[in-house]
C-alpha cells in the first residue's frame, strides 16, 4: 500500500458534477481529491481487506441473531423498548438490506483493525461506487494509469443485485433531507442502481412524507410501500413521527434490525463474544464517561457520526477531541489503533459490504487522527 501523486483531470469539477457528484468541495476545501491515489497489491486486497470484511460481516449478522433474542442486549444497545418488536420482526421476517461499511486501520501490513461498523446511512457510497471507478477508467484512457490497473470495486453491480431482492410491483420511494446535496446525490445514485434492477423509483424529501390513518403517504396521498430513508434509526426512535413506525405497513430500507449493528455499542459486544479476533480491537462499555480518557484509548458515543464527540488520547498523553451533538447517549472505550500516516495525511480504509458480499473500498484521509465529515476522499488502484 502506498500513496502516489497523479495529475488531476482538466475540469475535473465539471466531470464529476456531470456524474451526479456535486458535493466534491466542502466550505471551499476539496472533499474529492484526485491529485493522488492509493495503490494496493492483489494480496493486500484479498487477504487483508476483502476476507476480513466478509468475516466481520458474518460476525455482525450472528450478533443480530443473538441480540434480537435478548431484551437485556437490546436495552444495552440503547434501543427503546417500544421498538423491540419492530427490530425483532424485521430480522426474523428477513427484511432485505443493501449495504454496510467497516472502517479499518490498515497500512499495508498486518491485520486490518476494525474501528467502526456503519450499517445504516451510506456515507461515501457514491464516491466509492461510482466516482472513483469512473476516475480509474478516465486515467487508463488518458494513459496516466496502466491498462491492467483495476480496483476492488463491484459496489455498483452488487447494488443492482441487492435491489433485485425487492419486488418490482410498486414504486420504491427514496427520501433525503431537502437542501442536502450530499444526501440527494447519494439517493439519486441508489435510485439509478434500483432502476437497473427494474424498480420504479420516486424521490421524496423526508419532510414531505405524510401520515394518514397510520399509513405513510407521499405528496399525492399515495401509500409509500417501500422507503429508503437516509435518516438514522436512532433519530427515528426519538422523533414524533417515529411513534407511528412500529404500527405502519411501510417496508423500510435499511431495515430496523440494522439499528443493532449501526451503533458503536455493538463493537463492545463483538469484542466480548470474539475476544482476540485479529481484526477487532478491545472495546468496552464506558462506565465512567465523565472521567478523562486514559492514554492509548478512544471514547466514542454510541451514535456519533463523522468523528463528532470523539475523544482520543495518544499513548504519550496527547488529547484530541471533536465537538458535536452526541452528548446524551452511552459511550464506548476502544483501544487506540492510530491511523497510519502517508506523507502529511492520516489514512482510513472504508470497506463495503453490499448485500452480503465484500464489494469494495474507499479511502478517506485527514490532517488529524480523527476522520471527520470534511476528510478528503481519494481513489485507489489495485496493481501488482
Protein model, in words:
With 384 residues, the protein is α+β, with helices and mostly antiparallel strands. The protein folds into 2 domains: 2-263 and 340-382, no CATH class; 282-335, no CATH class. 28% of the residues lie in helices and 25% in strands. β2 and β3 (29-30) form a beta hairpin. The longest helix has 27 residues, at 42-68. The protein starts with a strand and ends with a strand. The mean pLDDT is 96.
Distance between the termini: 11 Å
Q: Flag low-confidence runs.
A: none
Helix content: 25-40%
Shape field = globular
Task: Give Rg in angstroms.
Answer: 20 Å
The pLDDT mean sits at 96
> Which structural class best describes the helix and strand composition?
alpha+beta
Largest sheet entry: 6 strands, antiparallel
Short description:
With 384 residues, this protein is of the alpha+beta class. The chain has helices at 12-18, 42-68, 71-76, 84-92, 125-141, 155-163, 181-196, 233-236, 258-261, 265-273; strands at residues 2-5, 25-26, 29-30, 36-40, 99-105, 113-118, 172-176, 201-205, 210-212, 215-217, 226-229, 251-253, 283-285, 297-301, 311-313, 319-321, 331-335, 341-342, 345-354, 357-366, 376-378, 380-382.
Topology:
Blueprint: E1 2-5, H1 12-18, E2 25-26, E3 29-30, E4 36-40, H2 42-68, H3 71-76, H4 84-92, E5 99-105, E6 113-118, H5 125-141, H6 155-163, E7 172-176, H7 181-196, E8 201-205, E9 210-212, E10 215-217, E11 226-229, H8 233-236, E12 251-253, H9 258-261, H10 265-273, E13 283-285, E14 297-301, E15 311-313, E16 319-321, E17 331-335, E18 341-342, E19 345-354, E20 357-366, E21 376-378, E22 380-382
Parallel strand pairs: 4-22, 7-8, 7-11, 11-12
Antiparallel strand pairs: 1-4, 2-3, 5-6, 5-19, 9-10, 13-17, 14-15, 14-17, 15-16, 18-19, 19-20, 20-21
Amino acid at each position: 500500500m502506498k500513496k502516489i501523486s497523479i495529475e488531476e483531470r482538466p475540469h475535473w469539477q465539471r466531470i464529476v458534477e456531470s456524474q451526479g457528484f456535486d458535493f466534491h468541495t466542502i466550505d471551499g476545501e476539496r472533499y474529492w481529491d484526485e491529485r493522488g491515489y492509493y495503490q494496493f497489491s492483489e494480496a493486500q486486497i484479498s487477504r487483508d481487506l476483502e476476507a476480513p470484511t466478509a468475516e466481520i460481516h458474518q460476525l455482525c449478522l450472528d450478533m443480530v441473531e443473538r441480540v434480537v433474542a435478548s431484551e437485556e442486549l437490546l436495552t444495552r444497545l440503547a434501543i427503546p423498548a417500544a421498538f423491540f418488536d419492530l427490530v425483532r420482526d424485521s430480522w426474523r421476517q428477513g427484511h432485505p438490506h443493501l449495504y454496510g461499511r467497516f472502517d479499518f486501520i490498515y497500512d499495508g501490513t498486518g491485520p486490518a483493525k476494525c474501528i467502526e461498523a456503519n450499517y445504516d446511512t451510506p456515507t461515501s457510497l457514491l464516491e466509492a461506487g461510482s466516482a472513483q471507478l469512473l476516475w480509474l477508467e478516465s486515467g487508463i484512457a488518458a494513459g496516466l494509469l496502466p491498462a491492467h490497473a483495476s480496483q476492488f470495486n463491484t459496489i455498483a453491480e452488487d447494488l443492482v443485485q441487492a435491489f433485485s431482492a425487492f419486488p418490482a410491483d410498486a414504486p420504491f420511494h427514496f427520501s433525503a433531507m431537502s437542501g442536502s446535496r450530499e444526501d440527494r446525490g447519494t439517493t439519486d445514485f441508489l435510485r439509478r442502481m434500483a432502476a437497473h434492477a427494474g424498480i420504479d423509483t420516486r424521490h421524496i424529501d423526508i419532510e414531505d412524507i405524510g401520515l394518514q390513518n397510520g399509513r405513510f403517504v407521499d405528496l399525492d396521498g399515495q401509500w409509500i410501500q417501500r422507503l429508503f430513508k437516509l435518516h438514522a434509526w436512532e433519530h427515528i426512535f426519538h422523533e414524533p413521527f417515529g411513534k407511528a413506525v412500529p404500527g405502519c405497513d411501510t417496508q423500510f430500507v435499511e431495515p430496523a434490525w440494522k439499528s443493532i449493528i449501526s451503533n458503536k455499542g455493538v463493537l463492545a459486544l463483538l469484542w466480548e463474544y470474539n475476544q482476540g479476533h485479529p481484526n477487532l480491537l478491545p472495546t468496552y462499555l464506558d462506565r465512567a464517561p465523565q472521567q478523562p480518557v486514559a492514554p492509548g484509548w478512544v471514547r466514542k458515543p454510541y451514535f456519533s457520526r463523522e468523528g463528532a464527540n470523539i475523544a482520543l488520547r495518544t499513548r504519550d498523553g496527547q488529547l484530541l477531541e471533536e465537538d458535536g451533538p452526541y452528548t446524551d447517549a452511552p459511550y464506548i472505550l476502544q483501544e487506540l489503533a492510530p491511523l497510519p500516516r502517508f506523507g502529511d495525511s492520516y489514512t482510513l480504509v472504508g470497506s463495503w459490504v453490499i448485500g452480503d458480499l465484500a464489494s469494495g473500498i474507499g479511502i478517506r484521509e485527514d490532517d488529524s487522527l480523527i476522520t471527520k465529515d470534511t476528510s478528503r476522499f481519494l481513489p485507489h488502484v489495485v496493481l501488482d
